[in-house]
Amino acid sequence: MSAQPRPLALALLLAFSSPAAFHAATAHAADPGPAPAEGEASITLAPVTVSASALSLGSDDMSTPVSVLEGDELLRRREASLGETLEREPGIAASHFGAGASRPVIRGMDGPRVKILSDGSEIMDASTVSPDHAVALEPLLSRQIEVLRGPSALAYGGGAIGGVVNVLDDKIPTAVPQNGIEGSVELRGNTAAKEGAGAFAITGGSGNFAIHAEGLKRDARDYAVGHGWSGGGRVDGSYNETETGSVGLSWIGDRGYLGLAYTSQRNEYGLPGHSHELEGCHTHGDELHCGDHDDDDDDDHDHEHEEGGVPYVKLRSQRWEMRGELLEPLPGFARLRVRAGHTDYQHDEIEDGAVATRFKNKAQDGRFELEHEPLAGWRGVIGVQASRRDFSAQGEESYVAPTLTRKNALFLIEERRFGDVRVEAGLRQEWQDINVDSTQRDRSHTGSSVSLGAVWSFAPQYSLGLSLSRAQRLPTAEELYADGLHMATRTYERGNPDLKAETSHNVDITLRKQGGDTTFSVSAYHNRVSDYIYANTLDEVEGLQLIEYAQRDAVFTGIEGQVHQQLDRTYGLTLFGDYVRARLASGDGDRDLPRIPAHRVGLRLDGNWNALRGEAEVYRVGEQNKVAEYESSTPGYTMVNLGVSYQTRYERFPVQLYLKANNLTDQKAYSHTSFIKDAAPLAGRNLTAGVRLSF
């Protein structure tokens, strides 16, 4: 065991060792506030400001659809991973790799096409490399989660053609609290994984300084699956243990703030479905050859694997973040915004008690944004962004040579209002250099992206949004240089150093109604991607696929949305759903792309009885039989979920109790987006109970 202090213990020590340093605090997202008085009319809230929009727009002003989870809704939706937290939103699925790793899949796109941010700063972990790598971010410590769909956030990268997920937290205070020490403590548990989790947050300040500390510990066992699975009652190796701690300090003035935070996260989680049977496979040209094992070696290896149990990951992430904003920094400019991060990430894949493969990622990223005052009626942001990523893999499955990736970018976002129409335009230019530590050659790429959007408020409470964009995604180091076995996904991967930038042309139309008893948001989109980079399967042996990264044109077409009808002062009904079709569309004819989510449609009944809120939900995920070569179809399933929360007080402290039941009918269900769908079905009936106290 390492002699380093555990992150949760460190955060607790720093939070409570010097009470004199804490004269005030903030946990504004955690405090549900007083319950409305009996008979009080409901209040229509103003649109939520979307921090990930460079111009800090309201959600109803966006030309493309955006989801914002906060407050009571976020409290009930949060799960152990970001993918599971967001997967009930229209247009969003989860990659599902057991319990430890799950990224959002937006409109059928995942990996590097979905950018994950921590308050505008990119999370520089290894989760884009492979779906068995966890996102180094904790949803239970989030204050607000924003999802921008489609290539609508050029300020954060032209490569995010699927969308952007921005997670807001309180680790760097932005204001000095006024009411003394404030914070929150939360405990929760569930039945499917016998999970127990606890979290705390505390902030204090005096004068121009504020300090914040937070931490979390989770212990979840192998989770139970739905009734009737042939593999048994629980998924072997699906446990998840997490410890996270963070400390942040800010200087806060009348015109802005500047803060620094340190976050340490440790995860240990299993890799269900991992097999040793084909570890000796190699390639002969474009064919797999797996015939060089003798029976004795196979028997010995299987015996060792049984003794060692299911392989698992030990993840360690240490991240420093700096955030700052300054009003009126220069004549003619309204705001300066700064974000920077330094990440030291490592995870070990452990088999038979020894480290089989070690992944390391040391990365830095920074961005500066200047918002200028209106000029000829146009308001806008000009910015610069730079990042450096030093990635390596060592050991049995070091299928990617060590690489150093440098990226630089300039961007400009402008908006102007013409009566009832708001127009937005964006430009971004990117430069990328990748140096590889092998005999292969280094590569450089450039990418240009442009977007044009408009929102027309054609009637009170109604708006129509249109977005057109051309965005370029530059190939990743893994797509260029992979060469070797990756047993977690049961693939032998070969990169292609001749890959060039892929170019997407996207049109997105969104119709919204924001007020009244009936509200809705419905979007349709068509995205044609020239030179789409995909894993082309060349051969398969007993479930192991030989893939080579290649390029062909692809088309993504879909629709998503939800309609809410307020039935009376207490009850409301929501109809929601999504559908996406993704296929290759060139060369020898159309071919479906792999792991594309099936269509989904559902109903949600919600109720609000003053301090008590609840919802009942049922949705149907259809069969996915539009599959790629070497891919099997996935049967559909029906989910029934219930949730309730109650706001009260303990003495003078706000308390929120919540209870939710997912998969109430104990359905056996498989996720088509998962590489290991047959080895790790979705969780069965799961009851989660929690309590959150704010002070």
UniProtKB/TrEMBL annotation:
InterPro entries: Beta-barrel_TonB (IPR000531), Beta-barrel_TonB_sf (IPR036942), Plug_dom (IPR012910), Plug_dom_sf (IPR037066), TonB-dep_rcpt-like (IPR039426). It comes from the Bacteria. The keyword Cytoplasm does not apply. Residues 61-164 form the TonB-dependent receptor plug domain. GO terms for cellular component: cell outer membrane. It is found in: Cell outer membrane. The lineage of its organism: Bacteria, Pseudomonadati, Pseudomonadota, Betaproteobacteria, Rhodocyclales. GO terms for biological process: siderophore transmembrane transport. Residues 1-29 form the signal peptide. This is Iron complex outermembrane receptor protein. Keywords: Cell outer membrane, Membrane, Receptor, Signal, TonB box, Transmembrane, Transmembrane beta strand, Transport. Residues 298-664 form the TonB-dependent receptor-like beta-barrel domain. GO terms for molecular function: siderophore uptake transmembrane transporter activity. It is a multi-pass membrane protein.
